[in-house]
Give the backbone structure.
Amino acid sequence: MYQTGIVLSGGGARGFSHLGVIQALNEADIYPDCISGTSAGAIAGALYADGFKPLEILEILSKNKRLDLFGFSIPKDGFMEMSGMQKILEKSLRAKSFSELKIPLFVAATNLNEGKIEYFNNGSIVDAVIASASIPVLFKPHVINKVYYVDGGVIDNLPVTPLLNNCKRIIGSYVNPIAYQDSFTNMFAIAERVFYLGLEKELKLKTKKFNLFIEPVELKNYGILDPEKAYEIYEIGYKATKKVLEQNPLC
């Protein structure tokens, strides 16, 4: 039984907020000893589980521009590919397999062939994380052992399931708040909005499973492909967590 588990949602560049959340928790002497993440949450979770501090992770990821992280491909099965992100993870991660991590990690990815969610916690970390972060249509599916995987958020964008009954307390960090939006600038913005609206019913049921839940409403103003604003997004997560901890201190 673990003392504290943390669940990190998907959300593209909004996932930099997770790093602010973890930093604020650490400053309050709260150190997650079990992590579950989807997509951006899987990226942040993998690096933290490998022993990097939140600000170190921010530096690793924010120094790369969008085109360094995501390369364009011929649009057959995705407009972009995760080759840049894969190289960053391969270079940065000291652990290569889940068993080598300092903190237990679960990574959620959608098995496209069978239409089900899978929670990776063994084998190649990089393969699992890239699979988890491959947003359908936008990115090419990632193939592992002849199975096609896409973003875990398609089925489970807040993967609390692996931590249930395994942690005394569970903290949730969710970076896709549903708040009023007065305009939609393009087709992608509309598709993104519809996707997260579809998750809202599931989210309301899941929030009851957390001892502490952080969902910064200000993140609605940031796109999921906006890594240039990493430090702003980090600060939003940090300040939101400080506020939540003041109102709901964890013993």
